[in-house]
């Protein structure tokens, strides 16, 4: 199962970050630089977590940061920040090393990406490989099933 929208230029591998806000901001940078959305979308993602809690942590080690579609989002996209040392999103077991950023232009266009991502991340062996990967190219190969 492939995620065509996630390419090596949208994947970063970093040792650690100071906090979850920095993780979201850093994870979003490839999409911001490639004009997928405006800076305000990053603020909206961070504000959503502040208001709603760590709902973006969908499983141990996995977070999918996103916000409501708005005019600041120009295209559907996906990026990934892989941390060698996970970051806590709360004190209660909400932590992640794989921080995906999903940009959505409406309520439907991104659903295929989410389905494919769920299929990939539903395989614990694949998740374990992603957690030990050290380069963007290695991560892309794992996601593409190579």
From TrEMBL:
<dbReference type="InterPro" id="IPR002178">
    <property type="entry name" value="PTS_EIIA_type-2_dom"/>
</dbReference>
<dbReference type="GO" id="GO:0005737">
    <property type="term" value="C:cytoplasm"/>
</dbReference>
<dbReference type="InterPro" id="IPR051351">
    <property type="entry name" value="Ascorbate-PTS_EIIA_comp"/>
</dbReference>
<dbReference type="GO" id="GO:0016301">
    <property type="term" value="F:kinase activity"/>
</dbReference>
<keyword id="KW-0808">Transferase</keyword>
<comment type="function">
    <text>The phosphoenolpyruvate-dependent sugar phosphotransferase system (sugar PTS), a major carbohydrate active transport system, catalyzes the phosphorylation of incoming sugar substrates concomitantly with their translocation across the cell membrane. The enzyme II UlaABC PTS system is involved in ascorbate transport.</text>
</comment>
<keyword id="KW-0418">Kinase</keyword>
<keyword id="KW-0813">Transport</keyword>
<dbReference type="Pfam" id="PF00359">
    <property type="entry name" value="PTS_EIIA_2"/>
</dbReference>
<keyword id="KW-0963">Cytoplasm</keyword>
<comment type="subunit">
    <text>Homodimer or homotrimer. Seems to be a monomer when not phosphorylated.</text>
</comment>
<feature type="domain" description="PTS EIIA type-2">
    <location>
        <begin position="4"/>
        <end position="146"/>
    </location>
</feature>
<dbReference type="InterPro" id="IPR016152">
    <property type="entry name" value="PTrfase/Anion_transptr"/>
</dbReference>
<keyword id="KW-0598">Phosphotransferase system</keyword>
<protein>
    <recommendedName>
        <fullName>Ascorbate-specific PTS system EIIA component</fullName>
    </recommendedName>
</protein>
<dbReference type="GO" id="GO:0009401">
    <property type="term" value="P:phosphoenolpyruvate-dependent sugar phosphotransferase system"/>
</dbReference>
<keyword id="KW-0597">Phosphoprotein</keyword>
């Amino acid at each position: 199962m492939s995620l065509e929208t996630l390419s090596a230029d949208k994947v970063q591998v970093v040792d650690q970050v100071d906090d979850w806000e920095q993780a979201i901001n850093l994870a979003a940078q490839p999409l911001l630089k490639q004009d997928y959305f405006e800076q305000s979308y990053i603020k909206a993602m961070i504000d959503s977590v502040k208001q709603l809690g760590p709902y973006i942590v969908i499983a141990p080690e996995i977070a999918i940061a996103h916000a409501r579609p708005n005019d600041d989002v120009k295209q559907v996209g996906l990026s990934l920040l892989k941390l060698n040392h996970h970051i806590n999103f709360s004190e209660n077991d909400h932590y992640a090393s794989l921080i995906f950023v999903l940009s959505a232009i409406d309520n439907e266009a991104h659903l295929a990406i989410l389905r494919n991502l769920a299929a990939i991340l539903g395989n614990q062996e694949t998740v374990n490989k992603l957690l030990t990967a050290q380069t963007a190219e290695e991560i892309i190969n794992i996601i593409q099933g190579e």
